[in-house]
Amino acid sequence: MQSKATTPKHYIDELPENRKEPFLKLRRQILDNLPKGIEETIGYGMLAYVIPHHVYPNGYHCNPKLPLPFMNLASQKNFIAVYSMALYAKKDLMDWFTNAYAKRCKYKLDMGKSCIRFKKMNDIPFDLIGELTTKISAKEWIEIYETTTNKK
């Protein structure tokens, strides 16, 4: 479910009441732990945490006019999702995350390539998402991104 919001505030104002509290707690964890050089904006109809052009002028290879994606946060129809591109690109980070998740949560991890889906609002590991946010600096993400995209 893609939002037409143009600002993070507008996006949050559109959230259903039963999603606001957990969504805002996730957002706070991300913002409190966001590496230097990464900014919050709107991208792909959700909250986007990106490396802006003044830090990484090349932008996103799919569309260089867009900043380099780092992480996204979205309220979808049946769940809240955190999208972490680094999980997909760095196997040891994925291994750390899946192990840490299993230790902290009673429900099975529901995950796609970079999408972590939370259907049970009372079982969101807020602190784990905050910790995940700190695991890669903007500089390291750019290096991983450039190495990964140059192989294709």
UniProtKB/TrEMBL annotation:
InterPro entries: YdhG-like (IPR014922). It comes from the Bacteria. Residues 19-133 form the YdhG-like domain. This is DUF1801 domain-containing protein. The lineage of its organism: Bacteria, Pseudomonadati, Bacteroidota, Flavobacteriia, Flavobacteriales.
